Amino acid sequence: MSAPASPHTSLLHIPHRPFGPRRPRLTRLRCLASLSPASSGASPANDNHLIQTLCAHGRLARAAALLQGLPAPTQRTYESLLLAAARGGDATLAAAVHRRLEADPVFRSDPFLSTRLIEAYATLSALPAARQVFDEAPVKNIFLWNAMLKALALADHGEEALSRLADMGRLGVPVDSCSYSHGLKACIAGSASHEPASARVREMHAHAIRRGYGLHTHVATTLIDCYGKLGTVTYAERVFAWMTERNVVSWSAMIGCYAKNERPGDAIELFQEMMASEADLVPNSITIVSVLHACAGVNALGQGRVLHAYILRRGFDSLVSVLNALMAMYMKCGCLEVGRYIFNWIGRRRDVVSWNSLISGYGMHGFGRESVQVFEEMIKEGMSPNIITFVSVLGACSHAGLVEEGKKLFESMVEYNVTPRAEHYACMVDLLGRAGRLDEAVELIQSMRTEPSPQVWGSLLGACRIHGHVEYAEMACSHLFDLEPRNAGNYVLLADIYARAKLQNQVEVLKDLLEEHALEKVPGCSWIEVKKRLYSFVSVDNKNQQVEALQALIGEFVAQMKNEGYVPDTASVLYDIEEEEKERILLGHSEKLAVAFGLINTGKGEVIRITKNLRLCEDCHAVNKFISKFTEREIIVRDVNRFHHFRDGVCSCRDYW
């Protein structure tokens, strides 16, 4: 149930150059192919130039053949071959160049070519060969050290990279901005958990500041990226604010930090600030992808359409990564048909991310069978599914109640060399739990060969909340309280289950525990875009003039609903207060405020699109159904789990969520 197709047609018009790549011009290559590598009249200088030209055009086999008979390759020829081997994924060519270098008395000990060789091996995931080059190099300058650090960090050998960095200090090798950048990435790669990684990044940050590199653009940008990955957004903001010089990579890192850490509104705002700055910065593909993810995060369809037009103007539609993000944005904003249109346009360039996005898109809208069909189509096309593919298709089965289909898919994972991980078990527990098969869900958890993760126990707890199963909820929380002692949501969810079971004493115990440990529930927050501006609303139980006006409008709908037999669902309000006061608190739920704001500030017939950071509660679900029928408006709400399309008093989830 997406928006009408016509508004999107103009945005998705086919440009004169289609999405597909241009056909390469082959004239020069045909001329090159006609040249014989053994031409008697060819000089070494001509052969060197010919090899470099062949490498530039991807003719690696011909270049390798010429190299064999070349008496004196130049430094530039060796470099061209190594760069081409890395670019073309040709490990055999890289090894051949390596052997030739070892036999070359002129360039055997050249630090520049040793650096290029390490970089090529790193790109080709040949870390042992890169180590060999480094260890055998008689002269190790800063560039060689940095290349080795980068190779180790790229291969997730963070501990070894940090050890090599320490060796630099011990041997008196001066570090530079690149050394710190690679070292920071190694801090993330070398740590199995969040805490040591965070401590290491902060320690290296302090070291960089002492050496005068703390505000260097390259180092500061890497710090922003690392802090973003660790979820410490405040530190990233400080680094960004302190930077004296910012380039497009710096801005992109901060935008990406916001987008990845559930602050999409800030990401969009920062992108707008970047575009309005006097630095005349041009976004790159990474910037575009991050902002598209942010638009998807808050249902900012208007902003997404503006970005779509920018993509077409700037030619970013030639990049599959951008098209994948664009497709995901439309689907997460409720425009399923447009997302499928872009998927079709990607055509033969589709990668596993393209397929995963389409499977996930259908699943979050409740079209489980369509998700399974896309999965089957993906297999027929010869694309191998990965970990995320199965998370997406199992999640789709869960939202649609396709238990048997989900079980078959779960059992088939080994056929595709994908080992089930905690997230897949969590999907299966959710699938079985939503369907009321709680005993089977618990048996699955007990059969796991690894320790169940918080995600697995959380799925069971969520199912217990749907079906009011106190015993299994207590079992899940006995583990969750140990695994996530600071997660207030688990306490609140168990308290909700107790409240619905009329176990008020246990509710009070949990409330005391929350207070004792100073835990606060994540407040409900909803976003709505009106006239390309983003507005956010937080669930409140206090009064202010704007909230009162919105609550008054919702109150009028609720009064009408009561005349038709509606009873507010106050069981989720855990305060020991009068029923009337509980009903007033329900009126302050963030999604109700966002709906009221949308009704006031949008035109008749316009779709109201809302995103919420938590699960949609039963009372808001009922109210939205009524409002959609009474006002003859379509309301699309995306909560933390799925989409709800409200139209004519009916929800697309069929009350199964």
From TrEMBL:
Q: Which Gene3D superfamilies match?
A: Tetratricopeptide repeat domain
Annotated transmembrane regions: none
Repeat as a keyword of this entry, yes or no, is yes
Q: Which domain of life is it from?
A: Eukaryota
Family annotation (InterPro entries): DYW_dom, E_motif, PPR_At4g14850-like_plant, PPR_rpt, TPR-like_helical_dom_sf
Q: Where are the PPR repeats?
A: 141-175, 247-281, 351-385, 386-420
Q: Which GO terms describe its biological process?
A: gene expression
Q: Which UniProt keywords apply?
A: Repeat, Transit peptide
All residue ranges annotated as the DYW domain in the record: 565-657
Give the similarity note: Belongs to the PPR family. PCMP-H subfamily.
Q: Which NCBIfam families match?
A: PPR
The identity of this protein, by name, is DYW domain-containing protein
Give the originating organism: Urochloa decumbens
